[in-house]
Amino acid sequence: MYFFTEKMQRLKLGFPDYIQALEEERRKIQVFCKELPLSFELVTQAIEACRQQLSGTTSEYNLNGQSECSERTTSSEGPVLEEFIPIKKRASSSPCCDEDDEDYEQHSLRQTVLNENNNNSDKRKSDWLRSVQLWNPDPPAEEDATKKVPGMELKRSGSGGGAFQPFHREERATKETETLYKAPSSTRVPAASSSAGELTPEKNQNEGQRKQRRCWSQDLHKRFLHALQQLGGADSATPKQIRELMNVDGLTNDEVKSHLQKYRLHTRRPSPLVHNNSSPQAAPFVLVGNIFVQSPEYAAVATSTASREVTTVTAPAGVYAPVATHPKPVSQPSADSIKKPQFKKFKHSEHSNSNERGHHSEGAVHSNSPTSSSSTHTSASPGY
DNA sequence: TATCGAATAT
DNA sequence: AATATTCGAT
Predict the structure, then answer these.
(1) Could you tell me if A84 and A224 lie in one domain?
(2) Which of A66, A96, A240, A284 is the most exposed place for a label (fewest CB within 10 A)?
């Protein structure tokens, strides 16, 4: 108490004024009652003490109003320190310091309701504090990340908050979760898309934001491979056809195209790593006389798991376990679906260029068993 | 115009 | 490394 008196004198304030000042102080820091519980408590105690000093009786500052945060100050002035410990506990239970950020929304609401007359400083607090990352808004369930809205590729432009999103972008890698990603054409929250996303006139303040990255889960990739197989291989298949066969809601041509491009790259060049001149065998085709033949190594790789005698473990290429390119589609999806027979593009390239893998079908090297190919695509796990 | 595939960009 | 976007060609 002495302490207070001294302060007062220094400030040239009377008890009433000092109390008032303290109360104001308290009001100010109330916003931080969560971060500075002790400070809050201290001021509270001070007020209490002063009041007692002033009136000689126990006062209830609580009556004044906003006291949400750790009210129980009622306990007279005992040794302040003793109070500290309990304070923390209390914090979580009091309305003001409701800890569990679990739900900012609800919290907000609650606040709104509770505050009505109070100055909504509390609300504001949560708002800006949030922006400062002291609290993180409940992270979205991982699954959410996985199954984004189908129709529209929602850009994560959203709001400023997005800036910190990276936190959530966790890697929920792997199978289990992945499974749900696939979209038997419906899994993808079609309803949501139709309602919320898509056409909504206003929304999209997307601006130049980039598309949300399409995550190629294993399932998705499986579908991709399957489609590829049906279309007779990566070379004959075109993005659009693939997309149609995959029948995945929300999947776009561009996405497939991109994936296809990557797939093709992986497929043909396992590891473009500095081929030391010692083993230039990386080339899929070798010039013999005036014709190109598939090089053994490449054949091995091409047929993926079927790496027979040629143990050229040429790579982590296995990653993309190329589906053995079938000369003919296993099953034509539907007449219209495939307008162009898988041989539409004959780049007429007998060139030095090493492309046209599609042709090696006739080659003896080609994986002879269709089963191998299918199994391949099943077992092969994309690097994801 | 719609697609494609390669080249870039992020 | 994995996707997205751009660009030129069909």
Answers:
(1) no
(2) A240
A339 touches strand B (CB under 7 A): no
Residues 6+ apart with CB under 8 A from A97: A33, A34, A37, A68, A69, A70, A90, A91
Q: pLDDT tens across A68-114, in order?
A: 333 333 333 333 333 332 333 333 333 333 333 333 333 332 333 33
Residues contacting nucleic strand C by the 7 Å CB criterion are: A 153, 210-216, 254-255, 257-259, 261-262, 266, 319, 382-384
Looking at residue A190, its amino acid is P
SS3 letters for A212-236? CCCCCCHHHHHHHHHHHHHCCCCCC
Pair of tokens at residue A96: 């003001």
**Which nucleotide lies closest to A209 by the C1' atom and the CA atom?**
C4
**Which of A80, A99, A118 is where one domain is finished?**
A99
Tell me the residue range of the domain where A34 lies: 2-99
Tell me, yes or no, whether A93 and A222 share the same domain: no
| Pair A301, A315: CB distance under 8 Å | yes
Indicate if A225 and A373 belong to the same structural domain: yes
A353: amino acid identity, one letter: N
Does A258 reside within a domain?
yes
**Would A52 be classed as within a structural domain?**
yes
Inside any domain, residue A172: no
Q: What span, in angstroms and rounded, lies between the C-alpha atoms of A171 and A153?
A: 20
User: How many separate domains does chain A show?
Assistant: 2
- CA A210 to C1' B8 (Å) is 15
C-alpha triplet A231, A282, A284: angle, nearest 5°: 35
pLDDT digits over A222-281, tens only?
999 999 999 999 999 999 999 999 989 899 999 999 999 999 999 886 655 554 444 444
Token pair for A57: 């009786």
Final residue of a structural domain among A99, A128, A156 = A99
Q: Which positions ≥6 away from A319 have C-beta within 8 Å?
A: A266, A380, A381, A382, A383
Q: Which nucleotides of C are covered by protein (CB under 7 A)?
A: 1-6
Is nucleic acid strand B under 7 Å from A253's C-beta? yes
